[in-house]
Amino acid sequence: MIHESDFLIAGSGLGGLFLALKLAGLGSVTLITKKQATNTATDLAQGGISCVCTNRDSFELHERDTQQAGDGLCHEDIVELVVRQGPARIAELNALGVAFSGFSAAREGGFDLGREGGHTRRRVVHAGDFTGHVVHKHLLEKAWADNNITILENHMAVDLIVSDAAGERYCAGVYVLDTMTGEIKTFRACATILATGGAGKVYLYTSNPDVATGDGIALAYRAGARIANPEFVQFHPTCLYHPQAKNFLLSEALRGEGARLIDADGNTFMEKYDPERKELASRDIVARAIDSELKKSGRDCVFLDISHRSPEFLHDRFPNILRTCLRYNIDITREPAPVVPAAHYMCGGVVVNRWGETDIPGLFALGETACTGLHGANRLASNSLLEAIVFAEQIYVRIREKRKQAPAPLAGLLQSWDSGNATRMDEAVLISHNWDVIRRLMWNYVGIVRSSKRLELARARLEPVIQEIEQHYWDYIITRDFLELRNIALVARLIIEAASLRKESRGGHFLADYPEKDDWNWRRDTILSSLPK
Fold first, then answer.
1. Known catalytic residue: 288?
2. CA torsion angle for 328, 197, 202, 338 (degrees, to 10)?
3. Which residue of 226, 228, 438, 444 has the fewest C-beta atoms within 10 A of its own C-beta?
């Protein structure tokens, strides 16, 4: 049986939901998500959405901050596009009923605005310290209620269906695993959108949810789409360091409100690494500073201290962080919190144009799955949610205009999935062992600070694991755990390959044997493709 809809979206984060609500006015939308629809990085996002809202700010300042954080690799036309659409998209979310903090028509700019690292002005629209959760919950409720949107939880994309029936390569849909029944279904659509999020689970320590296994990037690469800049993995500087706290961030907004980084002896240290901005330096600088301090001291963590602010302020501005830390017997109103860096955001991804189109007609990508050119070598804080809503609008406009000109036909006959002689995998250790090997390898060899030798060793040790995984792919019946392993292995290989090619240090990529930035040779994107050159 072939499941048909006008539009197929893989991923239930902000980008996928915002786009689904828009496309529902044009036709039927099927949205698949591999766990529950609430399991997204959006739902965990604390800081907010950056947007120029007041006369004390300007588009030019926001663009400059974005480009400075991106360390010379931002695409200027895309930076301008995203920044200047910001107010309209925030107004759209506000009109949909999203409850941002401090909204008042009488207030200049309309909202209570926060500030984060890399920003020279207060411009972060937020909902307390759980912005992503508030926005996501609201949009998800609207999507569930829309009769033109079908949300299928526990459905994971296996591979894209690329057809050449019309005389050119065209994405006709997706093979999808129903993780509850084990059935692999065929989904056909006029337009397929990858919005599956990032790949933080490639690393041993990450702020990302468990679903962040680089699925969209792996799907697109295997189908022949180009991937750009996977070497630029952003490490968030301040993940809570506690044996029972999994993936919990201490938002950059804390530093925006005056939190200081200190060592175990209570000494500040950021002035040694960025004397002017200190704690408000961009994430790549702060993460490397903490990494350097830990290596010099031999300690397990540094500390983030905001105890000099009043308890009343912290209760009002950071209720979720305060409550979560108290759960682990850490009272941030009275004492510093232990923190370490963790893999946080993929600045690279599937190459798309300003309309979110990939190299393959019929296939789009947005959010952390895509490389739009906005982030360059390092993402400016709170630009990710902004990018997601702006490119949801861009893709919607593109699809709407194309349907006006000539509605895209559903591709011709498609083959259903054939499992052949595959048998059920009886030993889960085949998955868990390789999963652990890859994540430890990436953390120890391809982390915050890299070297050419460690990259060579990582590549050599990863290849046998990938070969074993590919053999298992043909021998065993597919499960979600195995698909995730296959995807993180491929994304790990792409990160290593791109990091090995870039013989310089820039943004989130620091190569110890090439510590300087090389604008003459490397002020360009790193492009990888599975197709012959």
1. no
2. -20
3. 444
